[in-house]
Write a structure and sequence with these properties.
Length: 311
């Protein structure tokens, strides 16, 4: 019943007949899998402007003829981790979703944006419980995986709050990540790893800032580099616009840092590449993965920063 009211309320809070130009895949007849990944929606109950921005973004995700197989979020889905914010966030998601599986990573704002461990216990449970309830899932941790046959999505998450929004990822989670990637290697399928914070030094100067860090960044990167499979590592958190540092590659790993889809004024990029609504599209074909970027809220392709990976 609450799920129904979350969608119903979204109709009252966000009603728009505005036309958003659709997008097309490179080869819709032969595409094997598609996904849209957004980050830092920052849904905030007392900010109608942000709610409207998020609504236009999600409307734009479903403007095309073929819905993505997966709609994923790279954390900071809410501003404060409040129950009513999750209600609003999932109300919008479920209003526009046309059959996509929804994957949600959690960020520092979802956990209260504080170093307080007791707050983490409360809000991390709320994050997991809300995801399970609104998306009919049954995860029991902030990290989990979803296998789609041609690709596996691996979602990481902080296991505590820490100073300066640093993520805490323990050896237990890293060993689990290694096992998940070993499964991909054994089946020769690629992996998409989604985590809120970037890995140290992997996306230009933004990934060197102390408040963007993960306490075990080098260990995680070592596991990715040694996995023996093609990997796309997707993060958010930094609120930097699209630039030459947004997509970098090293060996079999491609590192992508997304702007905030819920914020205007992402840093260090022209307005077209820094305004709200920006996310990525993943297309998988026989022998190839393609990543492109789009402002879903405005229905505009963003050229110059995509990437193609041979499989």
């Amino acid at each position: 019943m609450i799920r129904f009211f979350a969608v119903l309320i979204s109709f009252f809070l966000f009603f728009s007949e505005a036309y958003i130009p659709p997008y097309e895949y490179r080869d819709e007849e032969n595409i094997r899998f598609s996904a849209v990944i957004l980050s830092d929606m920052h849904t905030e109950t007392n900010s109608n402007a942000r709610f409207l921005m998020d609504g236009y973004t999600l409307k734009g995700v479903y403007s095309g003829g073929r819905s993505p197989d997966v709609l994923a979020f790279a954390g900071d889905n809410t501003m404060n981790g409040q129950s009513v914010e999750w209600f609003d966030f999932y109300g919008l998601v479920n209003r526009y979703n046309k059959g996509s599986d929804v994957l949600v990573a959690f960020g520092n704002h979802d956990f209260g944006n504080t170093a307080d461990g007791e707050v983490y216990k409360k809000l991390s449970k709320r994050s997991v419980d809300s995801y399970n309830y609104y998306c009919r899932k049954n995860i029991d941790k902030v990290y989990y995986s979803a296998d789609y046959g041609v690709v596996k999505f691996i979602v990481l998450g902080s296991e505590n709050n820490a100073e300066n929004t640093v993520q805490v990822i323990t050896d237990t989670q890293i060993n689990w990540l290694e096992s998940e990637l070993a499964d991909c290697a054994g089946r020769n399928i690629p992996a998409v790893v989604i985590n809120h914070n970037p890995l140290y030094g992997r996306n230009g100067r933004r990934s060197y800032f102390g408040f963007n860090q993960i306490d075990s960044s080098e260990k995680i990167d070592s596991v990715l580099q040694s996995a023996g499979v093609k990997i796309i590592y997707v993060s958010g958190h930094t609120h930097f616009g699209l630039s030459d540092d947004s997509v970098t590659s090293d060996g079999s790993v491609t590192y992508i840092n997304l702007p905030s889809a819920g914020n205007n004024g992402n840093y260090d990029a022209p307005e077209e590449y820094s305004t709200h609504g920006i996310g990525m599209i993943l297309e998988i074909y026989d022998g190839e993965m393609i990543v492109t970027f789009r402002n879903f809220a405005k229905g505009k392709a963003l050229e110059g920063y995509g990437t193609e990976t041979a499989l």
